[in-house]
Amino acid sequence: MAGPSSGEKDVLTDASGPAAFTDGELQELDARGISSPLQVLRAHRALRGMRAGQVLRVVTSSEQTLAEFQALSKYVVGYELVSQEQFGDEFIHVLRKKR
């Protein structure tokens, strides 16, 4: 997959668009440089500890995580994949805990 040039944003998936989050609703997980599937496992663990409605923003450095986070939201009940974006060599996944 050809990525955008430096500094450009390429929106890969946008289910509902990231809403304005209030303090405490958005948590971040930096999973850059972590081997697959550990990025998804760490995100899953973080989401389990969150309240319904809270949002997790995960930054990864592997293109493979695009499909992995799509599968997580498809097969694990209670998680919504809000968006996926690519910024250069980084991939941003935004998930919301539904319940």
Automatic annotation (TrEMBL):
SUPFAM superfamilies: SirA-like. It holds the Pfam family TusA. It comes from the Bacteria. The keyword Transferase applies. Keywords: Transferase. One of its GO terms (molecular function) is transferase activity. InterPro entries: TusA-like, TusA-like_sf. Residues 28-97 form the UPF0033 domain. This is Sulfurtransferase TusA family protein.
